[in-house]
Amino acid sequence: MPLNKATGNMYEWITHTWNPIRGVCPHGCSYCYMKKIYKRFRLPPRPNIVSEKYGYTFGKNKIIFVGSAFDCWAKNVPDEWIRSILSFVKGNMHNVSFLFQSKNPERFIDWLGYIPYNAYLCTTLESNREYPAIYQNAPPIIERVKAMHGIKNRPKMITIEPILDFGEEFIQLLKMCQPTQINIGANTGCNHLPEPPSEKIAALVGELRGFTRVHLKKNLARLYREAG
């Protein structure tokens, strides 16, 4: 269970990833970059957590994305797995911060008393529109929004990646989440997704900057590139 250095289409500020659960993610989103690996190995979810008794620590001066390849907060993940993850995180918090990202952020609420304050809580909102064939088993968009709205006094992020075509009410839903930052990225595979035009993305970015910090991921340049 060693840390891995962040590579590829990762958030630029993330230094390392840690995947304490291995196997096929239950959400099954059609665009997931892990789908090829899932199809090859078809392994059921299983914990992969090393205890402090083995002498493993995160070290210092790192920003760690916990669960970059598997949603550790999915509905069918056993409570004891989450408890073990957070227990290990609690014992390795010195000069380290964390990103927990989930399409089931409602479960964050159940564990707020155990999640450290130096962790960003993030969910993915690809659009305000429902695309069942794309989202597969992930919770509906409105459920993700309601959960993020219910989380108070914590640093929160929203990631719009891959950005999909959206309606006017998308802005209001994003405001409801009260995010500290919104990240926007495009799909990096050839998945033929319904993507918005450049001018629509430009208008979205302008609106978002009126109430939060906006980070444009490098892969968004395929759809939208700011002047200068």
CATH architecture: Alpha-Beta Barrel
| Large-scale geometry | globular
Task: Tell me roughly what share of residues is in helical segments.
Answer: 10-25%
Q: How are the strands of the largest sheet arranged?
A: 1-2-5-6-7-8-9-10
Write a brief structural summary.
The chain has 228 residues and is of the alpha/beta class. It contains seven helices and ten strands.
Describe the protein's architecture and organization:
With 228 residues, this protein is of the alpha/beta class. An 8-stranded mixed β-sheet has the order 1-2-5-6-7-8-9-10, with no helix packed on it. A two-stranded antiparallel sheet has the order 3-4. Helix 7 links the parallel strand 9 and strand 10.
Keywords summarizing the entry:
TIM Barrel, 228 residues, 7 helices, 17% strand, globular, 8-stranded mixed sheet, alpha/beta
Present the secondary structure layout:
Layout: E1 4-5, E2 16-18, E3 21-22, H1 35-41, E4 46-47, E5 62-66, H2 79-90, E6 96-101, H3 106-110, E7 119-124, H4 132-135, H5 141-150, E8 156-160, H6 170-176, E9 181-184, H7 198-208, E10 213-216
Parallel strand pairs: 2-5, 5-6, 6-7, 7-8, 8-9, 9-10
Antiparallel strand pairs: 1-2, 3-4
